[in-house]
Amino acid sequence: MTYQAPTPAALSSMLDVVKFDASGLIAAIAQQHDTGEVLMIAWMTREALQETLETGRVCYFSRSRQKLWRKGETSGQIQHLVEARLDCDADAVLLLVNQIGVACHTGRRSCFYRAFGPEGLVELTKPEIDPNALYGKKA
Question: Where does this protein hold Mg(2+) (predicted)?
């Protein structure tokens, strides 16, 4: 499935519907388009969402660095947009993506690798790649 960017007029109209919070952010959930696997949650500003919709390469907003964060720019673990969906309240975005490599900074495919169990948190998956290889530091 190939992503097709909206026209500039349609893009502007769609972005006007989105309800960003008081900080100018919206929650963005990334899901693998063909398997349904939930990969991660991050935040987007209007600028990040616009860039994502224009280019088809997912861009988030890093709250810790206070700047745009193009997924994979330092790790090579890129997300290509297949489809973007807005929820019923217009305050959350679901990004159906084609994830290249792992999505989590811990080296795992998904950030949701721990389950709440009767004895405590249970690790469901091991890292597929050493985080040092991704970012040059421990996760």
Answer: 87, 89, 91
Which residue numbers belong to the known binding site for Mg(2+)?
87, 89, 91
Range(s) of the domain holding residue 87: 8-103
- The span from the CA of 128 to the CA of 126, in Å, is 6
Total of domains in the chain: 1
Domain contains 136: no
Q: Binding site: which residues? A: 87-89, 91, 104, 111
3-state secondary structure of 84: strand
Q: Which residues are annotated as a binding site for Zn(2+)?
A: 88, 104, 111
For 54, list phi and psi in degrees, rounded to 5: -75, -40
pLDDT tens digits for range 46-90: 999 999 999 999 999 999 999 999 988 888 889 999 999 999 999
What CA–CA distance (Å, rounded) separates 61 from 48? Answer: 6
0.70 cut: is pTM over it? yes
CATH at 12: 3.10.20.810
* CA–CA gap between residue 21 and residue 85 (Å, rounded): 17
